[in-house]
Q: What sequence folds into this?
């Protein structure tokens, strides 16, 4: 029972962070869909960049599930498998 509560809290927390990222502009809806799934742009600050123009990197055509995975792990990767895994 305790594990279920922890899992629910983690899911809710990731969803709240996702909504905050949209409100802050770090995640932007593309107003497009692919296979019925909304697409987003995720912009991440690159602290290692030496040039100002390289300070922000944006991933286009990202699924919400991929962004939620980024929130959890801190690493973004395109992974369409997450769509079928979470259905």
A:
């Amino acid at each position: 029972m305790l594990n279920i509560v922890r899992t629910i809290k983690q899911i809710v927390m990731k969803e709240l962070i996702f909504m905050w990222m949209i409100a802050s502009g770090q995640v932007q809806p593309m107003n497009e869909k692919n296979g019925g799934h909304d697409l987003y742009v995720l912009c991440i600050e690159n602290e290692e960049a030496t040039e100002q123009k390289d300070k922000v990197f944006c991933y286009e055509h990202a699924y919400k599930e991929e962004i939620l995975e980024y929130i959890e792990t801190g690493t973004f990767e395109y992974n369409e498998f997450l769509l079928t895994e979470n259905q």
